[in-house]
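To the team - adenosine-5'-diphosphate complex, inputs and output below.
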Amino acid sequence: MTDRFVAAIDQGTTSSRCIIFNQDGAIVAVDQREHRQIFPKPGWVEHDATEIWSKVQAVVAGALARAGLRAEQLSALGITNQRETTVLWDRATGKPVHNAIVWQDTRTSALCHELGATDGQDRFREATGLPLASYFSGPKAAWLLDNVPGLRTRAERGEIAFGTIDSWLIWNLTGGTSGGVHVTDVTNASRTMLMNLETLQWDPEILAAMNVPRAILPEIRSSAEVYGTAIGQVAGVPVASALGDQQAAIFGQACYDTGTAKNTYGTGSFLLLNTGARPVPSKSGLITTVGYKIGEQAPVYCLEGSIAITGALVQWFRDQLGIIRSADEIEALAASVDDNGGAYIVPAFSGLFAPYWRSDARGVITGLTRYVTKAHLARAVLEATSWQTREVVDAMYQDSGVQITTLKVDGGMTANNLLMQHQADVLGVPVIRPKVSETTCLGAAYAAGLATGVWSDLDELKAHWQRDVEWSPRMEGQVREREYANWRKAVERSLGWHEEGGQ
Ligand SMILES: Nc1ncnc2c1ncn2[C@@H]1O[C@H](COP(=O)(O)OP(=O)(O)O)[C@@H](O)[C@H]1O
Ligand SMILES: O=P(O)(O)OC[C@H](O)CO
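Output:
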């Protein structure tokens, strides 16, 4: 039997990656490139979508070259992407009309506040599963339509296309101005704040409230089906999956059973719990989102705890404070002391996401005394990730009644043993990392392979999953609860700092 190969593109916040997998779900080749982060004003974060498209083309070529494969040897191509980031482009020229507005960008906070005051918070949450927050795409699209001169009129005439990054890539991959398909998948659409979670279609009332014309929106499709055939460097290859990166990770982690969960530790961290065939509304500050939908099958929903800043705090410690030279140095520095020396850091750099959704929060370091050294602060940086995760795990339990008994983990920060041990300690459950920790690309590859017959069903995919490392809890319960109380006190001190219009 000749091996079959599936390529996945992971277009992330800081870089684009292409990974080619074989039929066992093992990695054959990887290529990765970073793109520019554009910060025009405090709180604003943009990407150049044209640059992203060229980086994506480069990593696809790079991965093929490293694998020693030709495009025609690929059975399918899957897409996974940073979610919520919003691009509007001119259908005739194929050019973006503005830089993409990134998920972390807070420029629409005031708009969200106004929408809440006029239409009520609950209306949006009930229809879309999301709290009104600058994180999501709908308000970003509305901002662009109102702030790029003449854009709203052109949009209403049907000249402009909206997309999250999946749509932008699929449109370009399948032909762009010469016949590219304008689609998105249910998982990405569920992050726009424009899709109704029950119908899985654009919600006309929400579109009206948000003032977003239907004419700009892509067609919503499943996460695993052939959307079109690629042209150019991968000509002839079916483009056969799209999933938001966190949904791709839960798919790659084989969390197909109700009650299973994973946490991905990257720039931010995103904990998703599979809640099965029905959306579970959150009362505890989580998001209700679509996990995946395979072709004609029923959708699977998730509850999600989105944490904006985890790995990005390590980057801040490295780049803004200069205390370490590389992210991995933080582990040795933190391990040089036994504890945090009483210091806690709450990285509310752009407010706090789950479970608080407080745009008025800003970062704080508390508990400082002259005793505290940079090593204690290094510990506090790492612990901020595990405590924020503990808070979303507690919220998951309140919302779903599911007590997580083991947590599957992945992402760049899981290379840090000290952090993973602390995570197991503060959750009081084992934390497990799989052998293939590139679960985001793997999930997109799995979905594309299912759509094209490379794999037959979820059981086959489940059999690929293998444990690599397991961290077991060691902390005494009393210590854990005392420190958790300290963490929550620190969070209290971060709230209410920022006033609208200030920085
Ligand atoms: N050894 C480490 N210890 C702690 N944090 C780390 C370590 N290695 C990488 N990181 C953090 O992980 C993040 C990168 O992870 P990755 O999964 O590639 O993120 P993303 O997909 O969001 O770009 C960075 O924010 C970096 O600071
Ligand atoms: O690109 P990442 O890995 O930082 O993921 C970003 C998330 O999709 C934002 O919702």
